[in-house]
Design goal:
This protein is of the alpha+beta class. The chain has 2 domains: 84 residues, OB fold (Dihydrolipoamide Acetyltransferase, E2P); 199 residues, no CATH class. Strands 1, 2, 3, 4, 5 and 6 form a 6-stranded antiparallel sheet that branches. α4 runs antiparallel to α6, α6 packs parallel to α11 and α8 runs antiparallel to α11. The chain is globular, with a radius of gyration of 25 Å. 31% of the residues are buried. InterPro entries: YibE_F. Keywords: Membrane, Transmembrane, Transmembrane helix. This is Putative membrane protein.
Length: 371
């Protein structure tokens, strides 16, 4: 009964923290009276578009109807600017639903800019489906997992990213965020008790080790933080003071922290179940059981990060393979070396978190050492 009361209080605490974070103002958001609305493309004018191979440049004229906001139902002209980059450009056809920014002046439309295809409604439907599935399958535990999901998003958007932009040390703010998220997720899902504490201690030790390895091998690899997409653009946007390399290093252990706490919870939950069913086991036997569980889980988790990062950079690797670049050249390239560093250092955390959690669980789940 006392354990459930603690869990309910913790859930309420993190619910209030999540709401408070979402209510915080965004990072120095500039005053903007423009409306962001859904529009329908009525007709297009492609006469100013130019085709160069597989890319297009120039402008696409659009006639749009605004579907929401204060100008709902109004038809106006807009322009779609093409930069000749496939990853950024889009070409509309009549009937498309798009996302647009409408600037008004004295109650009239001064300018309408169509930015991209409208995806917000589809994203909301996907999120709603995910939430429903999680609640249906997980029940109360699923509800707390969902709360930890939103708390994670709020911490990243309202704490981590503004901390980077404010000039705080990227490694320290990343470490703080990773540990805070670990505590929230582990205790919300695992409960405020020995199981949750063992999982948190194992995760925290694994994250700290990964942080240390990131700093050491990051300097050995000599990789500049600008290797990450849009990093250089950030410098040109008025944030030349940012240390991109430390942001890159902080992202290594932050990215692997989710898999680390997942493995820690697996080991801790198994040890809690063993300790409950076999209270006669000694501390040493329980730790060895935790090691056995950890070895089985680590065996399948070691490729998790490799597959994740390979999937993210499959196009880059395809370019190298298609051009017949020698393997030694590929492995030594800064882009590839950065992902190798990500994968191997993150995997160190996965491998070590299992014994860390087993040792913590052996200490917590047994009241005394029975030999």
């Amino acid at each position: 009964m006392e354990s459930k009361r603690r869990d309910h209080l913790l859930t309420l605490l993190f619910l209030l923290l999540t709401l408070a974070l979402f209510l915080l103002p965004s990072w120095k958001q500039a005053p903007d009276s423009a409306e962001r609305v859904k529009v329908r493309i009525l007709s297009t004018d492609n006469s100013n578009m130019r085709q160069f191979g597989i890319v297009r440049t120039g402008d696409q004229g659009l006639r749009i109807r605004i579907l929401e906001g204060s100008f709902r139902g109004t038809e106006t002209d807009a322009v779609n600017h093409l930069a000749g980059r496939l990853e950024l450009d889009k070409v509309f056809v009549p009937g498309d639903i798009a996302f647009a920014v409408v600037d008004a002046d004295a109650g009239r439309i001064a300018k309408a800019s169509v930015l991209d295809h409208y995806r917000l409604d589809t994203q909301l439907r996907l999120l709603a489906l995910f939430c429903a599935l999680l609640l249906l399958f997980g029940g109360w535990t699923g509800a707390r997992a969902l709360l930890s999901f939103f708390f994670t998003g709020a911490m990243i958007w309202k704490v981590l990213l503004p901390g980077y932009l404010a000039g705080l040390d990227p490694v320290l703010i990343s470490l703080f965020t990773a540990l805070a998220l670990t505590a929230a997720i582990v205790f919300l899902v695992g409960g405020v008790g020995r199981k949750g504490t063992a999982a948190f201690l194992g995760s925290a030790l694994g994250i700290l080790l990964t942080c240390g390895l990131s700093l050491y091998f990051g300097s050995e690899f000599r990789i500049h933080g600008a290797v990450k997409p849009f990093s250089e653009t950030l410098l040109y946007s008025g944030f030349a003071h940012l240390d991109l390399t430390r942001i890159f290093l902080g992202g290594i252990f932050l990215a692997s922290s989710g898999a680390v706490m997942d493995l820690a919870m697996d080991v801790s939950s198994a040890m809690a179940e063993i300790a409950e069913k076999r209270p006669d086991l000694s501390r040493r036997q329980l730790v060895l059981s935790g090691f056995a569980v950890g070895r089985s889980v680590v065996g399948t988790m070691t490729t998790t990060l490799l597959l994740a990062y390979t999937g993210s950079y499959s196009s880059l690797l395809l370019v190298f393979v298609a051009q017949g670049v020698p393997l030694a050249n590929i492995l030594n390239m800064q882009y590839v070396s950065a992902e190798i560093l990500h994968t191997l250092v993150g995997s160190f955390g996965l491998v070590t978190v299992a014994p860390f959690t087993a040792l913590a669980g052996g200490w917590l789940f047994t009241g005394r050492d029975r030999g």
